[in-house]
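User: Could you check the structure of this?
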Amino acid sequence: MLTVTTVNVNGLRAAAKKGFVPWLAATDADVVCLQEVRAEQSQLPDEVREPAGWHALWAPAAAKGRAGVALLTRKAPERVRTGFGAAEFEDSGRYLEADLPGVTVASLYLPSGEVGTERQEEKERFMAAFLPYLCELRERAAASGREVLVCGDWNIAHHEADLKNWKANRKNAGFLPEERAWLSRVFGEEGGYTDVVRAQHPGQDGPYSWWSYRGRAFDNDAGWRIDYLAATPGLAARTVKALVERAPTHADRWSDHAPVTAVFDL
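Assistant: Sure, the predicted structure tokens are below.
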């Protein structure tokens, strides 16, 4: 079995003080993908920077206090790559991948965007450059008999079922028609990837993976499903289960995102 978890930690130093460390000690995951680390390795406490039993890989952003992704693997990776070949995003702390036996696992933090601003233009440039790389990665892996799993915060709710208040967000970043269409290309014939959580939970709302800290969004389950595990078909077909590790109460949360976990029978 291969168990992979992805979670946007919303600042790893803060998450470490709220419950991330005991969560990591208790998880059965073989691979943990982290996003929005927002710290250099030197700024992290020892038990977070070099957690016992894990090989820790870090890709901080050149812009201090922003973005940053990481991979924690039980087995030593065979190969590691930071970035996906787009010069603009090479040191942005948004993509990190590692080759493990038979599978390439990546941690992704796609820009969130904001309509009418440069942030949205940055998001669009990222998406335009990233989809061809996803296709290349899938084809390269297939040629060598490998599978691919790209995990992370994609910052797009794909369908109405992936967002509680979808009617009010039709003109907002994260649910724009062009963003959703792009994600349909990733999960369609062009990209060839499978949304493993949706495949395991067809025809239902959610399960959501992010809730605003404002109001009672978490208590009312007024969330967004924006954290995905995108698998190549061979790996997706081996999914045993996929779930969101939703905290039992608001007070138990150590991030505004919940860990999303999938188990594969290899």
